[in-house]
Amino acid sequence: DKLPPVDFSVSPVLKEGRLLGIYKNCYSVNAASSENKKKAGMVLISMLLSEGMQSSAYMDNDEGIPLNKEVYKGYAEYKMTTYLAFLKDYPMDDIWLEDGEELCRIMRMEGTAL
After folding, report:
1. Taking each helix axis from N to C terminus, what angle separates 69-78 and 51-58, rounded to the nearest 10 degrees?
2. Nearby residues of 20 by Cβ (< 8 Å), 6 or more positions away
3. Closest CA to 24 of 76, 84, 66, 75
4. DSSP code for 19
5. Greatest CA separation for the chain
6. Ordered per-residue pLDDT tens for the chain, 114 residues
């Protein structure tokens, strides 16, 4: 909002024609934990992925894209500004996920090619 749109642009990072992305916050359940801890961990993860939590986490800020498909539909409809309009051209089910370091390497390579 503070910079005029002519000062910068957002470009998709592609690999073999597919949109690249990374998981920023990864959670898992430790297989070596007790059964009670495993169950509690699964309840927590299912809550984090629920429609209400995903909506709260992503609809009110500018960082990341929700994993919950129902929340993503609303996100795509209401949150994608002209800067992010290119995302509508790529199905989120077909996104190519990389680790953060690999994505940074690809972006550096793409940046030198521009």
Report:
1. 30
2. 12, 13, 14, 95, 96, 97, 98, 103, 106
3. 66
4. E
5. 55
6. 555 555 555 566 777 877 777 777 778 899 999 999 999 999 999 998 899 988 888 877 667 778 888 888 887 777 666 556 677 777 767 777 766 666 667 667 666 544
46 token code pair: 């299912």
| DSSP H stretches of helix in 1-114 | 35-48, 51-58, 69-78, 100-113
Distance CA 105, CA 114 (A): 15
Beta-ladder partners of 110: none
**Whole-prediction pTM:** 0.54
Token representation of residue 96 = 């190519």
Distance CA(81)–CA(103), nearest Å, equals: 23
- Radius of gyration of the chain from its Cα atoms, rounded to whole angstroms: 17
What six digits make up the tokens of 18?
């597919």
Neighbours of 79 (CB within 10 A): 17
Which of 20, 25, 40, 33 is closest to 95 using CA atoms? 20
